[in-house]
């Protein structure tokens, strides 16, 4: 009887293992659902694809080497012959889709793919693959009178066109609504309609490789760590609405968020430490602290400036916004290769909404994209998950992680949040926590002993970064306005001793130094 019971238990265990194995195969990982594309004529492209494959654990068969000239702009015929058709054929060869290629091509030369089953979710495009498709006026022999004139073109980013590769040859002229835009229920997302596309490309191979490493390091350490900065502009209310909505999502998550609401752009004398998330718009050329060499960009940071030609080129670090942001240390950016018109470009608010819910950059990017076969690109690792769920976000060694926790506690119990801030500062003092306590948590009842203790701690820190000078000055100015002047000389002397103060701050320091 006992032997029989053991046999039954063994059979049940075996069935459970088989079911688990079947379940795992039925729900493959993101790595198993990814196709990596490189240019076989560019050695750095091949190296980058191999490096990415190793880092992400992507099956070797899921790397495609295309034979194409390494230029940024190609015409539609070259796109079809050297990218669209070869990718479709390879998807079947690599078992990323089950289906077949029909024998006849359409009027644009595209082969027809009939899909029975799809595994593909992401396409990762490596440096060396063309960026955009030119207007191709020769294709406009087909009337398309129903399409408004600005959209009567095949001009688009290669990435946006490839997002539709599993559809049955959609019309390349004009824009196409993204069926996966802002999905009400994620279980209804169907990647046969549109794929998540990410391009790993910067002005140099080293920079492109760094984008991969930074994303993976952030995931391994628990999540993206830093502050958010949102730069508004009064030119168009819609753009401001998107950015203000994005700021609300970030603040609700617990991220410290600053908003610049003047008609100008972010000043160099404003606070700009640890810009893990930068969102702005309306300036044609990159400028401000986001691309300043004096601003230390957190690993895995996401920078996004909405502009018509923000990704016109990715090869030149001085053109547009995307390349300069990447050059300055950001790991992810978004842009347009040509004029998209504001209503037809990617939505930063929807992207942030899904990102802080724990989705990958690729998923959030796809859900935030209203139209395809158009001008947008997302540059960065689409498998990157900056805010993993069910993780105690970052280690408590980072002041920005501590502040994230403080902000979350503040919503539940302000007293508890203040106590946590004070206790954390005692164990691990930082200028960021001091600012939180002395400026943001100021109650009017701070004792001279508490203030003296905090100021003494922050003026004994061995390192002072240039972007932290603003925090020291704001603390000193806050103490001055609240009548606590005894500790201000300690702060001004500390700033001068570190020799990182430039002329922008001299007037404020001199004013604080007066009796």
Brief synopsis:
The protein is of the alpha/beta class and 515 residues long.
Descriptive overview:
With 515 residues, the chain is α/β, with parallel strands linked by helices. The chain is built from 16 helices and 17 strands. The chain has a six-stranded mixed β-sheet with strand order 12-11-13-14-15-17. Mean pLDDT is 89; it is low at 1-26.
Q: Tags for this entry?
A:
16 helices; disordered N terminus; 515 residues; alpha/beta
List the helices and strands and how they pair.
Layout: H1 2-26, E1 34-39, H2 43-56, E2 63-66, E3 73-74, H3 76-93, E4 97-101, E5 113-118, E6 122-126, E7 132-133, E8 156-157, H4 158-162, E9 176-177, E10 196-200, H5 205-221, E11 227-231, H6 237-253, E12 257-260, E13 275-281, E14 302-306, H7 322-327, E15 332-336, H8 348-356, H9 361-367, E16 371-372, E17 376-379, H10 399-412, H11 414-427, H12 431-440, H13 448-458, H14 469-481, H15 488-498, H16 503-513
Parallel strand pairs: 1-2, 1-6, 3-7, 6-10, 11-12, 11-13, 13-14, 14-15
Antiparallel strand pairs: 4-5, 7-8, 9-16, 15-17
Helix pairs in contact: 2-5, 6-8, 8-9, 10-11, 11-12, 12-14, 14-15, 14-16
């Amino acid at each position: 009887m006992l032997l029989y019971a053991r046999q039954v238990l063994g059979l049940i265990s075996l069935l459970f293992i088989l079911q688990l194995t079947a379940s795992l195969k039925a729900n493959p990982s993101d790595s198993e659902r990814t196709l990596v594309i490189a240019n076989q004529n560019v050695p750095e492209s091949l190296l980058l694809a191999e490096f990415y494959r190793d880092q992400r654990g992507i099956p070797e068969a899921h790397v495609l080497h295309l034979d194409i000239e390494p230029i940024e702009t190609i015409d539609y015929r070259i796109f079809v012959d050297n990218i669209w058709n070869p990718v479709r054929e390879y998807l079947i060869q690599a078992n990323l889709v089950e289906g077949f290629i029909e024998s006849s091509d359409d009027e644009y030369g595209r082969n027809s793919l009939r899909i029975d089953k799809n595994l593909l979710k992401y396409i990762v495009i490596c440096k060396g693959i063309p960026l955009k498709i030119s207007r191709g006026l020769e294709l406009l022999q087909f009337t398309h009178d129903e399409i408004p004139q600005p959209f009567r073109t095949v001009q688009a980013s290669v990435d946006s066109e490839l997002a539709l590769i599993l559809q049955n040859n959609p019309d390349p002229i004009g824009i196409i609504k993204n069926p996966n835009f802002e999905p009400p229920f994620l279980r209804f997302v169907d990647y046969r309609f549109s794929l998540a596309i990410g391009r790993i490309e910067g002005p140099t191979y080293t920079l492109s490789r760094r984008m991969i490493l930074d994303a993976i390091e952030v995931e391994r350490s628990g999540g993206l760590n830093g502050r958010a900065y949102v730069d508004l502009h009064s030119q168009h209310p819609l753009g401001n609405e998107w950015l203000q909505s994005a700021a609300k999502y970030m603040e609700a998550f617990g991220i410290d968020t600053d908003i610049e609401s003047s008609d100008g752009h972010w000043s160099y004398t404003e606070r700009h430490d640890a810009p893990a998330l930068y969102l702005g718009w309306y300036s044609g050329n990159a400028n401000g602290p986001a691309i300043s060499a004096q601003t230390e960009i957190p690993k895995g940071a996401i920078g996004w400036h909405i502009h018509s030609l923000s990704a016109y080129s990715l090869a030149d670090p001085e053109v547009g916004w995307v390349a300069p942001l990447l050059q300055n240390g950001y790991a992810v950016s978004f842009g347009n290769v040509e004029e998209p018109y504001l209503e037809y470009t990617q939505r930063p608010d929807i992207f942030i909404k899904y990102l802080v819910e724990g989705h990958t950059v690729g998923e959030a990017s796809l859900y935030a994209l209203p139209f395809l076969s158009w001008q947008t690109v997302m540059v960065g690792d689409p498998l990157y998950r900056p805010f993993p769920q069910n993780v105690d976000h970052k280690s408590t060694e980072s002041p920005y992680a501590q502040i994230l926790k403080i902000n979350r506690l503040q919503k539940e119990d302000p007293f508890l949040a203040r106590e946590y801030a004070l206790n954390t500062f005692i164990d691990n003092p930082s200028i960021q926590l001091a600012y939180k306590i002395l400026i943001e948590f100021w109650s009017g009842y701070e004792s001279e002993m508490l203030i003296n203790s905090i100021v003494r701690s922050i003026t004994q820190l061995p390192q002072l970064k240039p972007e932290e000078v603003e925090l020291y000055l704001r603390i000193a100015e806050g103490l001055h306005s609240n009548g606590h002047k005894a500790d201000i000389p300690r702060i001004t002397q500390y700033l001068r001793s570190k020799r990182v103060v430039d002329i922008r701050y001299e007037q404020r320091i001199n004013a604080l130094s007066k009796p």
